DNA sequence: AGGTGCATGTAAATAGTTACATGATTAA
DNA sequence: TTAATCATGTAACTATTTACATGCACCT
């Protein structure tokens, strides 16, 4: 899923500006997708050029102007096509686990801060996901994705909690 | 963790060639790290030039020659330094969950194949991790990383199994 | 006085994958 | 005979992040 498809998907939930799409993605897809403005704005301009989305400039009295995009019929078709044909990989890239593989080379302080930091991050994401799950206008699919994150991150936190003692005792030479 | 640090880490477990490092990483770190030859070989050459690893060419009678690398003292220091100072992000990028968010736009066949495919992949990785966990020469840290993968992927498979019916019934309009 | 949020965008840097190139051996 | 395993490497391409540029309003 490149940024263009991500934008099409986000816009299928409702019209939005680039800024709003990023906020929305962080709030709902945050635990399994990342986006930056540097990729979102070029993607929106390209999609506009291809006629897959349409742009309306909205002047706001107190805030800066914004460009609100909406999905066209062609865009909706393109999204469906993409969803039907794309690969559906689930990739994890964890420097957290990599560093932990070498627990014996770390100081106990470092080990502790890495473990606690990761628990904190999972719990931050869990709160976001649970907030999301409370909404009653959620589609079955979106509910599945959020529930998946909830289940997996709960398991992760529980594992770290129960095995923290082991790694702290066994690691930390030096 | 860039590829260079990954190579230093892999070599801390024992001398190896680029080819062997990739196999080793796929077998043990596979569920949370990916590497390709296109990044491994340049990384090894660079590390060699910096004196962080040393190279010995081993001629084999029937197989092609190989370059076996070993960590130097400088390399081990560099690895420790890197492990002590680097950020420890845990990133998930899931096109699987993204596609599932739009379950209502997919055919039931597509939905079923995506769900089953993901379960299969998790189970493949679970088998690898469990094989790894059986080894008794495993450091506490490596055991933690493998156990984490085991716990999290188990939770993922269980979630998909128990919620497959829901998403199959609720999604698949069209 | 300074930080945060709103809002859009570009350019350079970073990092990585994919495809290609080569070639012998072994198992199905 | 066809594919897979062993083995190293390069070059082009793809994608994304980071840093920069700009600027007003609001809160502390």
SSE layout and pairing:
The structure is a homodimer of 174-residue chains.
Chain A lengths: L2 H9 L6 H11 L8 H13 L3 E6 L7 E6 L1 H13 L4 E5 H7 L6 H27 L5 H31 L4
Antiparallel strand pairs in A: 1-2
Helix pairs in contact in A: 2-3, 6-7
Chain A binds a DNA duplex (28 and 28 nucleotides) through helix 3.
Q: Label the overall shape of chain A.
A: elongated
| Amount of helix of chain A | 55-70%
Radius of gyration of chain A: 20 Å
Number of helices of chain A: 7
The counted number of beta strands of chain A is 3
Major sheet: arrangement of strands of chain A: 1-2
Strand content of chain A: 5-15%
Question: What oligomerization state is this entry in?
Answer: homodimer
Cα separation of the termini of chain A: 44 Å
Name the chain pair with the biggest interface and residue counts per chain: A-B, 63 and 63 residues
Low-confidence stretches of chain A: none
What is the chain-wise order of helices and strands of chain A?
A: HHHEEHEHHH
Largest sheet entry of chain A: 2 strands, antiparallel
Given helix and strand content, the structural type of chain A is mainly alpha
Average of the residue pLDDT scores of chain A: 93
């Amino acid at each position: 899923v490149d940024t263009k498809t991500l934008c099409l998907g986000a816009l299928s939930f409702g019209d939005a500006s680039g800024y709003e799409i990023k906020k929305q993605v962080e709030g709902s897809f945050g635990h399994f997708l990342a986006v930056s403005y540097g990729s979102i704005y070029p993607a929106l301009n390209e999609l506009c050029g291809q006629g897959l989305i349409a742009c309306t400039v909205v002047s706001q009295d107190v805030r800066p102007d914004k460009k609100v995009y909406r999905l066209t019929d062609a865009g909706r078709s393109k999204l469906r096509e993409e969803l039907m044909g794309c690969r559906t990989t689930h990739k994890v890239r964890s420097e957290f686990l990599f560093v932990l593989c070498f627990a014996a080379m770390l100081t106990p302080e470092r080990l502790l801060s890495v473990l606690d930091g990761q628990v904190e991050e999972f719990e931050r994401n869990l709160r976001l996901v649970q907030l999301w799950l409370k909404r009653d206008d959620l589609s079955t699919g979106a509910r599945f994705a959020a529930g998946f994150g909830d289940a997996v991150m709960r398991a992760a936190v529980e594992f770290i909690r129960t095995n923290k003692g082991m790694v702290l005792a066994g690691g930390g030479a030096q």
